[in-house]
Structures are given as structure tokens and as C-alpha cells.
Amino acid sequence: MAEAAPAAAGGGIGDILATAERDFLVRNSGEQVKISSIEASPVAIYFSASWCPPCRRFTPKLIEVYKELASQGKSFEVVFASADQNEEAFNEYFAKMPWLAVPFSDTEGRAALDGRFKVSGIPHLVILDAKTGEVYTEDGVEFVSEYGVEAYPFTPDRINELKEQEKAEKENQTIQSVLGTPTRDYLISNKGDKVPISELEGKYVGLCFVVDGYGPVIEFTNLLAKIYEKLKEVGEKFEVVAVSLDSEESAFNESFAKMPWLAIPQGDQKCEKLVRYFELRSLPTLVLIGPDGKTLNSNVADIIDEHGFEAWEGFPFSAEKLEILAEKAKAKAASQTLESLLISGELDFVIGKDGAKVPVSELVGKTVLLYFSAKWCGPCRAFLPTLVKEYNNIKAKNSDFEIVFISSDRDQSSFDDFFSQMPWLAVPLEDERKASLKKTFKIRGIPSLVAIGPTGQTVSRDAKAQLMIHGADAFPFTEERLEELQKKLDEMAKGWPHKLKHELHDEHELVLLRRGTYGCDGCEEMGSTWSYRCDECDFDLHPKCALGEEKKGEEEEGKSTDEAPAGHVCEGGVCRKA
């Protein structure tokens, strides 16, 4: 670690940034600046690196705040402490920054700053008093991101003041305070017209947070547009305002052109403020504001997503209206048939391997598994061999059984390649029924298996777990069948030893315990009902693994170069929307 330099006159920033060998910082032009000459206060130390995506997203925001404060004549300086891996990367990244930096060559000096402020992740922004060295905050990234120049001078008192202001704003909220600014009292249409915010007073207003190119948002806004037009048609006083999270105006314009409602101008700081104001956690989000300007619901997107177009009948989503929607959904589920799920207009078929159309009528009366999956999904690829094996085992004994593949693949070639490995049927890739099926069964992650019984009623929404635990014996996936299997296991358990030692866990004895669903640490597959367990080490073995009835395979399934598309994350054996 570098040795600290003697305290500069007045102490403060000199003690923190200088070393015995160096009393200067540098600009991206190469100019050296004496640390003792820095008069600005506060000073922010910016720990960042070009290889870090969150840093690259935050740096433009910090530059914007830095320049805005400079234009207002406010005293503020930033010092870049790089975590880049080489000087070329440092120079390229620093070239975009209008402030100072610790020389990249001073490895020990940069490391000393990391240690002093216990930097465990980047971007990290420490803001302090230049004269005294008092740290105002180590949450500078959060404050700059959320409040921008309003947070200046970034002291705890100022942040508390802003939070109190927000609290007061919420208590006295109006549609004007939510959507307007001191310099803007209008919204815009996609034709460029300015619409006074006052025209929305007395109406229900939905604030729709949007970002171009994000699949879930595109799907939601397409659905919302249909509901919006329907509510207009029946005379409801309802308006939607898009709140853009796009950084590029061209991206915003492209998506906004397809929307029939209004928007806050792209790039308006109000958009960022509303993200914080409504504590945005996920997309899509639709905040509902009542006619009095107060927030009725912080996110009705889930309600609309669950009920689809019929959600319009629940507007404005009061408890009474939601109860009506729930009753309708219940009645719809009770009248469900395989035909109602898989037939839409002239789309009354699924396809086989050669693309041949198989009428849905040929599946009626069978137990049908709807298999939601995709080639890009690693857990799906890993699960497929097991599903093929159990499918063949079930079909060998039961002709009244079938699987239908519902793909989330991005292109026809991926669909064709993945489907070629399956001995069952599929809904075509570009088929409108896929969206309806995903919505009906609230598919949040893949792979997923939904079991439809011979009457067309849903018998299991998690047939995958049953199949992984019981194999082909899980057929026909009903509650009654599961109860039979559990009784059978209970009888078998009477003959198993209560305790045993196992080579996979020789630290402690394993005890036979009744369990819910768990993951076996031997074969890494799911288990249920009974486990040989060590509570101290959180270790479980299937009875069949513990008793040596089966050995874990060596082969790893599911390896591929395919990656999850944007907006998805794969972990824990499932791929979900991020």
C-alpha cells in the first residue's frame, strides 16, 4: 500500500488522495493538477472501470450532473480511481470524463483508496468534504442516480430534505405534480402535439413505464392498447401516459409511434424521478392514478397480464371489480376443455415431425402434457432426455397420453432443431395460441409442464416436479395418483434403516426424515416425501441413492452455445423473465 503524504494545509482531501511519491492528479489531456490546488468542495471519488457494464451505464449520468453543476457555478469535483486492467482501457474510458483521475501508473495509490473506503463493488462513489475529509456519503451512485443535481451538495441533511419533500409531495399529490415540472405543463402525442396536463384532471390515468425492444413490455403495451381502445369505446374517462426509460430518442420514437396514448417527452428528468417516486421494481409496470390525482394502485400490470383483454371489465380494478374478474376466471376454468385451450378460429390442429397437421380432436379424451420450453434454455435442454425417456415409458403402457411442445424459441431453425429431438407434437412456432396458453397457465419460467386430464380440466400445473420425483409412475398426474404414490413410499420406508453412513457424506450419520420437495445432493434430481438427511450440513439423499439402488450418471446434459435472450435469466434449473 502507498504511504500517505504529509497532511496538506488544512488537511482534508490532500491526506486522502496524495501519497509520499505523488502530490498530483491528472486530466485526460495528460495535464498534472496539484492536489493542494483543488478548491472545489464537495469532492467525489469515483471507483469505476471500463469493463463494468453498470459503470458504463452510470458514468454518463455522473457526467451530466457534473456539467450541470458546473454550468450553475456550483463547486464540485470528481476524482476517478480506476479498476481497469490495463492502461489502454483506462485511457479510452478516462477520455470521456471531464474530471480528474489518480494516475493509472500509481497502482499502490489506487489500491490504498480501495482499502481506505472498503470498496467491494463498482461503480462506487464516495462524496466528502474537501476541507475536512468528512465523508458525506458512500452511497453517491444511488443519490446521483435518483436525485441528480437536486442532491447537491450530497450531504445527509440534503438527502433527508429531499426525502421529506417527496413524502410531502405524495401526501398532496395531484396529476399536475406527478406529470408536470416547473417548466413543462404538457404531454406529447406521437404526432408531436402538446396536450395540456390539465386535460387529464378528473380522469383515471395509467402511467406505463416503457423501454424499446424489451419483449415483455412490447407484449404488455400491445394488450394495453386493445384495453385502452375498449375503455374509450364504452365511455370510461381513462388515459395512459408513457414514461420512457429509453436513453436514445430514436428508440423512444420507434416504440411510441405504435402507442395510441400520450407521453412525457423523452429525456425529461421527470421520467427518472417517477422511477424513484413509484419505487419501480419490474417491467411492465402500470401505475393507476384516480380522478382525484391520488395513486389507486402502484401496479395493475399483473392484473391485466393475468386476465388478458377481459381485464377491461374489471376497470378501475377496485376490490369489488377484482372479485368479479376472479369469479369469471373461476367459471372459465371450470368450463375448460382441450378444445378451448388448443383451438382458436381456424387454428384447430397441432403439428407432427413432418409438419403434418394433427387435428386437436384426436387428442380429446387423452391426458395431455403442455411442454413449455426452448432450445436456448439450458435447463430445458438438460431436462429433455429425461422427459423423452419417461414419455416413452408412459406411452408403452398408456395409449391415451400425449405431449404438445409450446416453444419460446426465437427462430424457426432453433425450433426445428429442438423439436427434432422430441417424439411428440407441437404448436407451430409463429402461432397466436402460444401467448394465450402462457397467459392462461401463468408461465413464469421454463421448462414447465402442465397436465390436462381426459375431460380437458387442468390436473397439475407442475407435472415436471411429479415426473422428476416419480418418473412414469406419476401418470396420470392427478392428486389421487400422487396420494397413492406417497402411501406406497410410506410402506417402503418402514423397511428402510432409520440411520446410516454414506460415502458422499462421511462427516455425520444421515437420518431418515419425512420431507417436502428437496434436491438430492447425490443425483442432483428432485425428491419428495422421504430423505436421508443431515440437518447440520443441509445435506439430502434420495432413499434410492442412500441405499445404493441407483448411481448417478456421469454424462452432463444440456451443454450448448445457445444463450438466453435479453430479459431472461437461467438459474436453479429454470429460465425466467428477468
TrEMBL record:
Record field: compositional bias (Basic and acidic residues): 550-562
InterPro entries in UniProt: C1-like_sf, DC1, Nucleoredoxin-like, Thioredoxin-like_fold, Thioredoxin-like_sf, Thioredoxin_CS, Thioredoxin_domain, TryX_NRX_thioredoxin_dom
Boundaries of every Thioredoxin domain copy: 14-164, 177-321, 327-487
Catalysis performed (reactions): [protein]-dithiol + NADP(+) = [protein]-disulfide + NADPH + H(+); [protein]-dithiol + NAD(+) = [protein]-disulfide + NADH + H(+)
An annotated Gene Ontology molecular function: thioredoxin-disulfide reductase (NADPH) activity
PROSITE patterns on file: THIOREDOXIN_1, THIOREDOXIN_2
Highest taxon of the lineage: Eukaryota
Residue ranges of the region described as Disordered: 550-578
Keywords: NAD, Oxidoreductase, Repeat
EC code(s) of this entry: 1.8.1.8
Family: Belongs to the nucleoredoxin family.
Name of the protein: protein-disulfide reductase
Species assigned in the record: Miscanthus lutarioriparius
